[in-house]
Amino acid sequence: MPIIAIVGAGFGGLRAARALSHAPARVILIDRNNYHLFQPLLYQVATAGLSPDEIAHPVRAILRNQHNLEFRLAEVTRVDLAARQLTLSTGSLDYDYLILAVGGATNYFGLDSVSKTALALKDVDDAVAIRNHLLRMFELAAQEPDPDTRRALLTFVVVGGGPTGVESAGAISELIRLVLTKDYRSLNFKEARVILLEATDKLLAAYPEPLREAAAETLWSKKIEVRFMAAVTDFDGSRVALKGGEVIPSRTLIWAAGIKAAPLVDTLGVKQARLGRVIVSPSLQLPDHPEAFVIGDAAYLESGGQPLPLVAPVAIQQAETAAENIKRLIVGQPLIEFVYKDPGSLATIGRNAAVAQFGKLQFHGFIAWVMWLAVHIYQIIGFRNRLVVLINWAWDYLFYDRAVRLISSE
Amino acid sequence: MPIIAIVGAGFGGLRAARALSHAPARVILIDRNNYHLFQPLLYQVATAGLSPDEIAHPVRAILRNQHNLEFRLAEVTRVDLAARQLTLSTGSLDYDYLILAVGGATNYFGLDSVSKTALALKDVDDAVAIRNHLLRMFELAAQEPDPDTRRALLTFVVVGGGPTGVESAGAISELIRLVLTKDYRSLNFKEARVILLEATDKLLAAYPEPLREAAAETLWSKKIEVRFMAAVTDFDGSRVALKGGEVIPSRTLIWAAGIKAAPLVDTLGVKQARLGRVIVSPSLQLPDHPEAFVIGDAAYLESGGQPLPLVAPVAIQQAETAAENIKRLIVGQPLIEFVYKDPGSLATIGRNAAVAQFGKLQFHGFIAWVMWLAVHIYQIIGFRNRLVVLINWAWDYLFYDRAVRLISSE
Questions:
Q1: How far is A32 from chain B (nearest CA, A)?
Q2: What's the whole-number mean pLDDT along residues A275-300?
Q3: Do B53 and A403 touch (CB under 8 A)?
Q4: DSSP 8-state symbol, A23
Q5: What confidence score (pLDDT) does residue B399 get?
Q6: Would you state the CATH architecture of domain B112-257?
Q7: Which residues, in sequence order, are bridge partners of residue B355?
Q8: Do the Cβ atoms of A285 and A99 come closer than 8 Å?
Q9: What's the pLDDT band for B227 if we cut at 50, 70, 90?
Q10: CA-to-CA distance for A249 and A333, rounded, in angstroms?
Q11: Is B198 annotated in the active site?
């Protein structure tokens, strides 16, 4: 039986594995983590609302009943397209077909100092590090006599006006103003600032104008300083420098300003487009290696003259197409081309506020927030996770609380 | 107003802080973590049944309504009894009264190699490290062609026949035989072993003979090899050496063989008894420093000719006495002496099995297990934690599952 190797157990890799459940092949899924991460809620781990196990689910548990599947916990260090072989941290693996679903990595746009000192938000470790950092700033501020140092400890800068930046800034502001005010009675919360920096003049650029305006309004109403045309040039751990000379004293810089294709694809020796994404054919194959497919954030394909966005629905739909095409290759049928169906977008800005777009329908405020809740509860993998997340959200909503205010060791 | 410093937010320190809520004093509670840990369930974090936030609760949230209390997140590095001053990692603190509730630390009895390579089970980081390690052994075994190496990967040695060792061994065996068998279909679970090593001829030495026998029977029925008179002399990460020359190839040694007083008390320059515990007067004071109290695992006091055990009820009851005596010192009243009231003991050995002793009453099996559940659900701090723990336990019981099977980075 042919071996189909799938690299990455994110939204794309997992869906591809499932779509191949009845394929006449050995499907081998490889990931460096033993869990699938529900990334859209990562910022809630970073802001103490959820614990990591509520948004991460063991891959083996998800795919337990799929009998043609093997899981390998390993890092893929090299792809030899010519020899059809993967080098893993635990050995090597020969494949007949390959699906690279390796996702994205944080893009610092060449800012070395920022890449070393800023906090990213891409995996569970990042999120836990942000949670620890935020809470530690408050503990230090509570013991800090110098007012300038204290203000720098209580200034939280988020960079990037995309969904991750907007959602993170909203959640941090609510963590501070609804929860931590009750924990730190000795602090003067007038000293606390949350600043969202966006290098262009648009928040949530993928959304239509009215929703973008509504999002900015909501952020302001939550006392978040929204700064447009503000590009970060340097961060040394205590001062954020902006283009134009402005300096913001702050101990915290959360970098949500961009992603790029995961670095593994840089080693393939194939043609890459913007953000390092690998150029694939409409059937999602590498031009010179028809047995190798790339999907999701790491793949570059245009739709209607625009590059496909780096979002989960693209990865999931491409997984279906790649799996279908491998099944067709096995039996010698002609391949299909990928067509993206935009399911709409949702972003939340905290309690009672979100923006949503489905085709020509637009929503914002409470109604969009309820949609956001419903969609996300539904999508979280595993019935127990859903139940526990629901309890946590209901509790937080009713009691203005966050459960997971633990500073763990790193 | 006088300053009362309490070092440690464990069972003793937390209770002392609460008991001083109406004292005419500034109460300053110091801990190196920002949470109180419900240690009796730590082994369930180590075996993927609970997540850390379910047994850890932020100190500030617990004591939010106590207006004479301040919390400081800091490590206490030095106690100057003569100057009545604490050196903290964040500065210094002068006190008028002191309660040292610093608890215990893992005791390796001078076995250097073991202290470097074994897994301890004393705090949240330890528990998460054990969880990661156990799951990683299975992932490595699933990819390991050599049968000898594979068997060593699947051999789990727990050292110590006290409650922690017995509960851990039981939980590991159930994790393997009820849950992981479903996740790793390619493994032959006949190769997996759980071994409990006890240096004396008794498990659960504090319990009466019939319960000790019942506990050993139950462990055997759960396919745990219980070895008496087995003293570990060395562990290099792949081989456990026993006194007498026996060698067990194993990658895992969980050390639950003993505790001692936390190392901070070694720096006090006062008289210490066995396990480094500080000798206190019947009113729990240091003989030459009547303003300084030591309680819990770090204090040495006899009751009925026997040293008091290193258990939570002693720490909690001593906290009440120490708090009362400080209030009496402030107003110049005569002090009271500590009298221990044994509330009984409970230890669980997994699904449907536990041993319990309350005075002359003894229970084992299902009835003791139900008592254990009720007592522990009741004791967990915070209504939400109780609810989530209850859901997790019910789910695990009904579906033979463990929720938190995540391998996180360390």
A1: 10
A2: 97
A3: yes
A4: S
A5: 81
A6: 3-Layer(bba) Sandwich (3.50)
A7: B347, B364
A8: no
A9: very high
A10: 62
A11: no
Judging by DSSP bridges, how do beta strands A193-197 and A155-159 pair with one another? parallel
Q: Which residue of A has its CA nearest to B45?
A: A53
Comparing A240 with B360, the larger pLDDT belongs to A240
pLDDT at res. B410: 52
Q: Which amino acid is at B139?
A: E
Tell me the mean pLDDT in the region B238-264: 96
B86: left (phi over 0), alpha (psi -120 to 50) or beta: beta
3-state secondary structure labels for all residues of A197-224? ECCCCCCCCCCCHHHHHHHHHHHHHCCE
Contact A405 B58 (CB under 8 A): yes
Average pLDDT, chain B: 94
pLDDT tens-digit profile of B84-136?
999 999 999 999 999 999 999 999 999 999 999 999 999 999 999 999 999 99
Residues from chain A contacting residue B53 (CB–CB below 8 Å):
51, 403-404, 406
Q: Which of B60, B136, B388 is the closest to A391 by Cβ?
A: B388
Torsion of CA B304, B309, B315, B317, to 10 degrees: -30
What is the distance between the terminal CA atoms of chain A, rounded to a whole angstrom? 44
Phi, psi of A168 (to 5 degrees): -65, -45
Q: What is the mean pLDDT of residues A235-252?
A: 97
pLDDT at B349: 87
pLDDT category, B5, cuts 50, 70, 90? Answer: very high
Q: Which of B35, B12, B50 is nearest to B386 (CA)?
A: B50
DSSP string, B337-367: --------EEEE-STT-EEEEETTEEEESHH
Record the pTM: 0.93
B contact test, residue of A26, A31, A138, A143 with most B CBs within 10 A: A143
Residue B321 and residue B142 in contact, taking contact as beta carbons nearer than 8 Å: no
Per-residue pLDDT, averaged over A48-77, amounts to 93
Please indicate whether, in this complex, the C-beta atoms of B34 and A139 are within 8 angstroms of each other.
Answer: yes
Q: Is the pLDDT of residue A410 over 60?
A: no
List the catalytic residue out of A70, A139, A144, A167: A167
Which residues, in sequence order, are CB contacts of A149 under 8 Å at separation 6+? Answer: none
Beta carbons of B61 and A405 less than 8 Å apart: yes
Quote the minimal CA–CA distance from A386 to chain B in Å. Answer: 12
Query: What residues of A are in contact with residue B409 (Cβ under 8 Å)?
Result: 124-125
Quick one: angle between helices B312-331 and B11-19, nearest 10? 30
**pLDDT, tens digit, for every residue of B177-192?**
999 999 998 999 999 9
Q: What is the pLDDT of residues A116-141, one digit of tens each?
A: 999 999 999 999 999 999 999 999 99
Per-residue pLDDT band for B376 (boundaries 50, 70, 90) equals confident
Interface test with A, best of B33, B143, B392 (most A CBs within 10 A): B143
Q: Tokens 């930046």 sit at which residue?
A: A165
Task: Please judge whether B406 and A58 are an interchain contact, meaning their C-beta atoms are less than 8 angstroms apart.
Answer: yes
Q: How far is A140 from chain B (nearest CA, A)?
A: 8
How much is the ipTM here? 0.90
Q: Hey, of B32, B385, B408, which one would you mutate to test binding to chain A, going by the most A CBs within 10 A of its CB? A: B408
CA distance A127 to chain B (A): 12
**pLDDT over 80 (residue A10):** yes
**Residue A199 confidence (pLDDT):** 96
Residues of chain B with CATH 3.50.50.100: 112-257
Output the CA–CA distances (angstroms, integers) from residue B66 to A203, A342, B6, B59, B60, in the order listed. Answer: 43, 53, 15, 11, 10
Q: Please give the CATH architecture assigned to the domain spanning B3-32+74-106+259-331.
A: 3-Layer(bba) Sandwich (3.50)
CATH 3.50.50.60 residue ranges for chain B: 3-32+74-106+259-331
Asked if A407 lies within 8 A of B33 by C-beta distance, the reply is yes
